[in-house]
Every structure is written in structure tokens, then in C-alpha cells.
Write a structure and sequence with these properties.
The chain has about 250 residues and is of the alpha/beta class. About 50% of the residues lie in helices and about 15% in strands. It has nine helices and seven strands. It has a seven-stranded parallel β-sheet, with helices on both faces. β1, α1 and β2 form a beta-alpha-beta unit. α1 packs across α7.
């Protein structure tokens, strides 16, 4: 069995790669940090392959797919992504567009291309890493929340198409609350609630994937938030999220 893991150099992506290696999977790892990729290849050894790529650039996404397309990939893990904190009119537009290209466009392209391959042979797994943020509107992290809404809705639509076709291809969306990774440092915020570990998120996501479940919602509080937000008026929910995000602001 062979998996492609994007964003494999840190956080949940790295934890997923380690978990899969322990399960005996062969790996293709991609990310921007070539030194970390080389280190992982050395640690994992054997059949591990690496390809340095910046998936915020569309041509790089297709390059990664072309590198993998004849290697009999069984599992695609779309993990690469980051967030930006700040009021919408204040955040840097170039950084924001790069984030959208990574969080949405790269995931969209890889999901479509590998899904076509998986459906031809009627087997394969896709694990898309979203967030609890994907169920809500997120003032002060508006574009990030919107990008994770896209991941959940796209994945849900694909799941329903596969279900109606009685396909053996499986898709799962992992939606953790805060995870103890470098994400908040990149976004420029502090944790406002206790995070879970990347290792726990990885193990939980893979367990649900191989069980054929669509949602992977680690922790009881995550499940309660994902369900409970449906019953809160949008204006009130948006105000609650604003206050949560505002409390995470890093003072400089």
C-alpha cells in the first residue's frame, strides 16, 4: 500500500506519515522544506520517496500528480495548508491568495485527479484535512474559515456521489479543533483552548478513514461544537467566534 502525504514536514501531515510508516505503508512525501523531507526519508528508509514542492503554485500541484500517477497510489492525504489572522481589509492580499491556492486549489486538483484514478480501479482512500472552523464563519480569520468550509462541502459532495455509485473508494474529512502544531505561529495567534496533539489527530483521522466514516471529529467537544452550531443563529455564532479569535491575538 502506498500513500501520498502533502504538508508532510510538520504537524498533522508529519504525524500521519509516521503513523502510516508504522503500519507498513510505502510513502511519497511532499512539502517545501527539503531538509526535513530528506531527514524523513532517511528515518523511514526503504521505499520512501520525496518531492519538494510549493503547492500554492498550480504548476507544482500538477508536477506532484505527474510524479505519482504511475506509482499506484492507494491513499491521498491532503494536509498542506495554513491560516492568516487579521481583519479582512488589513491582511496581506498576496499571502491570502497563496493560502487560498494551497488550502483550496491544490486540494481540489489533487482530489479530482486521484479520484479519477481510484474510481477506474474501484479502490482507494482520500483523507482531506479540514478543521472545526469549516463549520462556521470566522471573523478575524475569514479566509481560512471559508477555505475549510470549502474542503468540507467539496468532500461531502464527493462522498454522496461515491455512496450512490456504491463505489469502494472512500473519502474522509478530518476536522480537529486546535492542534498543537506550528499552525498558530504561522497564523500569528495563541491557543485560546487546550490543543490536542498532532499524533492523536493523525491516529483518529486514519482510524475513521479505514472504517469508511466520512467525518473524523476528534474529542467530544469537537463533536458537540460541530453539531451544536447548527442550532445557534448565524449572527450570534459569528459574534462568539469573533470573541474567541480576538482572545487569541498575539500582542507585539
Amino acid at each position: 500500500m502506498k500513500a501520498l502525504v502533502t504538508g508532510a514536514t510538520s504537524g498533522i501531515g508529519k504525524a500521519i506519515a509516521i503513523n502510516l510508516h508504522r503500519r507498513g505503508w510505502e510513502l511519497i512525501l511532499t512539502g517545501r522544506n527539503e531538509k526535513v523531507l530528506e531527514k524523513l526519508k532517511k528515518v523511514f528508509g526503504g521505499n520512501t520517496e520525496i518531492i519538494k514542492a510549493d503547492l500554492s503554485e498550480r504548476n507544482e500541484v500538477f508536477r506532484v500528480y505527474n510524479f505519482c500517477k504511475d506509482k499506484n497510489i492507494d491513499l491521498l492525504v491532503n494536509n498542506a495548508g495554513y491560516g492568516i489572522f487579521g481583519k479582512f481589509d488589513k491582511t496581506d492580499i498576496d499571502d491570502e491568495l497563496a493560502m487560498i491556492d494551497l488550502n483550496i486549489t491544490a486540494l481540489h486538483i489533487l482530489t479530482k485527479l486521484f479520484l479519477r484514478d481510484f474510481k477506474k480501479r474501484d479502490s482507494g482512500y482520500i483523507l482531506n484535512v479540514a478543521s472545526l472552523a469549516g463549520f462556521m464563519t470566522g471573523a478575524l480569520m475569514s479566509s481560512y474559515y471559508a477555505s475549510k468550509n470549502y474542503v468540507i462541502r467539496l468532500s461531502s459532495a464527493i462522498y454522496e456521489e461515491l455512496r450512490r455509485e456504491k463505489s469502494n473508494v472512500k473519502i474522509t474529512v478530518l476536522c480537529p479543533a486546535p492542534v498543537d502544531t506550528n499552525f498558530n505561529n504561522r497564523a500569528g495567534v495563541n491557543f485560546s483552548i487546550k490543543p490536542i496533539t498532532a499524533e492523536y489527530a493523525a491516529e483518529y483521522g486514519l482510524k475513521k478513514l479505514f472504517q469508511g466514516k466520512f467525518f473524523a471529529l476528534p474529542t467530544l467537544s469537537t463533536k458537540i461544537c460541530a453539531v451544536g452550531q447548527r442550532f445557534v443563529p448565524e449572527r450570534i455564532l459569528s459574534a462568539i467566534v469573533y470573541n474567541i479569535q480576538n482572545a487569541k491575538k498575539v500582542d507585539v
